[in-house]
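B., you asked whether I could sanity-check this one before it goes into the benchmark set. Here's the sequence:
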Amino acid sequence: MNQSDRYPIASQGLQFIPRPSSFIHMKLVPLGDQAVLAYLPDEAAAVRLAAAVRAAAPDWLQDVVPAYASVGVFFDADRVGTGEVAAWLGRRETGDGRRETTDAVSRLPSPVSRSHTIPVCYEMALDLPRVCEHTGLTTDDVIRLHGGTAYTVYAVGFVPGFPYLGYLPPELCGVGRLPTPRLRVEAGSVGLTGRQTGLYPLARPGGWNLIGRTPLTVVDVADGFFPLRVGDAVRFERIDEKRYRELEGERLPV
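And here's what the prediction gave me:
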């Protein structure tokens, strides 16, 4: 067996674990000594793998964190080692005894995702002129394109509950971050940069281009309210300032 047929896994020094010959679409790397990071061909495959790992629920599993085309699998190092987890990910037994390889990942059923419609007041926008200047679009075009696109939550992070949503329509892509980040971005602010759009659930510093604001509460840390999850579908719905005031403070329905 040559080195290309193995996974490099670091636990006690550098080790290599064999891989099935059909295991060609997923790359496994150690993430410290208590996690393995799996890189998948695309975001959809990562969502399916994360759901499958959660469903299997081995006793050593502590957490599963999907982000774009990767999945972090965190484990109890007192129960299992890095190499064993990598082997488990690379070659699992299904209920009828067949072996699953990464070829099978593409055949895993997609997990049931939730759909959210988030109202946005695009009049409460600080950076629409900057976005228009960069894209050459009118304000109405930016709002129409942003609000007319269905997005997927591909990662959650930066601050608790911040959803990274993809992908913007081509006409809105490529707008860079602000040269100087703001010291405070208000909770509910909707921004975009690169190919992504996102929603600041809490007041924080930030450098994305702000194009609107939602009146809804999308995170309540004290109450454990985190309605947006990786794999969920999100659409934005345009509202005016009057409707914004009527909805202000309500929770995002789940």
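One thing to flag: DSSP finds six helices and 17 strands in the chain. Otherwise nothing jumped out at me.
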